[in-house]
């Protein structure tokens, strides 16, 4: 016999209890944020055809929806508004009676403990579908900041617990921080979409939120999927500007970036498991090609292993049922 020894890794995999004992990462309902799309009108639950199981919900149905989420152990929701009227400057995003502001009031009145995270962006509210103000085909940075600050302040006024700016204008964190502080909302944290790539994985979301750009694309403000160092620069500036959470988006193809951000910074890191990632799994599952439950749990556990503390996912309700079962 040679004196070369090999290691017996299988000792720790022998039985289910043994595997439970040495498992490094876990999914907990406390870590999930569930996105909700709110529409105007009443008695409406519009299924989003490209996202099976996801609906646009009218205000009057929000209390029952929130009760269901709470009963599943979901403690935070991310609100997106789908307004009837759009204009060139996205007035609906910062109107006192805008759809997200009204939805926030309804939810906080019904269930004050539910954490409302308000997505702060203009794309659902502008007729051109871009995340800022447009002039001569350009998305203007500093001019857009003013409107984003107004949106964030009106969301806080309505009772939002966390402001989540997703617009990718430079300086949005510091602008919104100052705006919130001046308006008396020093205690409201900012969950920044710090690292957001210009991704084809947002396709189904744009059906759900009716926010497809009417010309061009978002590549002058969202990041190039080929870049890694740029993600650290984006995250760094948001940390310096006062962000309280750092989102990395999308999730699956960017787990390396999640790990980089986790290693470099000490704020909570949030993975956004986006619409395209959801729809791919649902489509394959509907065809009987994959085991949906196993795939979803493996994918979400992968985010935790990659360093995410929190996960924004359309699968949150499914996971609650899997974990309960
Ligand atoms: C708004 C916004 C988008 C998403 C979240 N906030 C779309 C986009 O940037 O085009 C995408 C979420 C998803 O795909 O699930 N700017």
From TrEMBL:
The active site is at 196 (schiff-base intermediate with substrate), 249 (schiff-base intermediate with substrate). The keyword Transmembrane helix does not apply. It holds the Pfam family ALAD. GO terms for biological process: heme biosynthetic process. It is an enzyme of class 4 (lyase). Its cofactor is Zn(2+). 5-aminolevulinate 2 binds at residues 275, 314. Pathway: Porphyrin-containing compound metabolism; protoporphyrin-IX biosynthesis; coproporphyrinogen-III from 5-aminolevulinate: step 1/4. The keyword Metal-binding applies. GO terms for cellular component: cytosol. Zn(2+) binds at residues 121, 123, 131. Mg(2+) binds at residue 234. It comes from the Bacteria. GO terms for molecular function: porphobilinogen synthase activity; zinc ion binding. Its EC number is 4.2.1.24. Catalyzes an early step in the biosynthesis of tetrapyrroles. Binds two molecules of 5-aminolevulinate per subunit, each at a distinct site, and catalyzes their condensation to form porphobilinogen. Homooctamer. Belongs to the ALAD family. This is Delta-aminolevulinic acid dehydratase. It comes from Perspicuibacillus lycopersici. The gene is hemB.
């Amino acid at each position: 016999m040679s004196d070369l020894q090999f290691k017996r890794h299988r000792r720790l995999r022998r039985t289910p209890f043994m595997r439970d004992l040495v498992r490094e990462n876990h999914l907990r309902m406390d870590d999930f944020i569930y996105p909700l799309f709110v529409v105007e009108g009443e008695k409406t639950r519009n299924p989003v055809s490209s996202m099976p199981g996801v609906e646009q919900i009218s205000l009057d149905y929000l209390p029952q929806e929130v009760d269901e989420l709470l009963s599943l152990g979901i403690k935070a929701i991310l609100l997106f508004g789908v307004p009837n009227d759009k204009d060139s400057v996205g007035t609906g995003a910062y109107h006192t009676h805008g759809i997200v502001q009204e939805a926030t009031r309804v939810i906080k009145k019904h269930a004050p403990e539910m954490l409302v995270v308000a997505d702060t962006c203009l794309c659902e509210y502008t007729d051109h579908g871009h995340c800022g103000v447009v002039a001569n085909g350009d998305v203007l940075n500093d001019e857009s900041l003013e409107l984003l600050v107004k949106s964030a302040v009106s969301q806080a006024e309505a009772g939002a617990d966390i402001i989540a700016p997703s617009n990718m204008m430079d300086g949005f964190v510091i602008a919104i921080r100052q705006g919130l502080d001046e308006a008396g909302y020093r205690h409201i944290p900012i969950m920044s979409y710090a690292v957001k790539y210009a991704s084809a994985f947002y396709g189904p979301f744009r059906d759900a939120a009716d926010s497809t750009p009417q010309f061009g694309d978002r590549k002058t403000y969202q990041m190039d999927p080929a870049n890694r160092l740029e993600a650290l620069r984006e995250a760094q500036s948001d940390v310096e500007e006062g962000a309280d959470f750092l989102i990395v988006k999308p999730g699956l193809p960017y787990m390396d970036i999640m790990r980089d951000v986790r290693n470099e910074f000490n704020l909570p890191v949030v993975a956004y498991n986006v619409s395209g990632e959801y729809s791919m799994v649902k489509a394959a599952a509907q065809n009987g090609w994959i085991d949906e439950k196993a795939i979803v749990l493996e994918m979400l556990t992968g985010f935790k292993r990659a360093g995410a503390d929190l996960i924004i996912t359309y699968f949150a309700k499914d996971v609650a049922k899997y974990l309960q079962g």
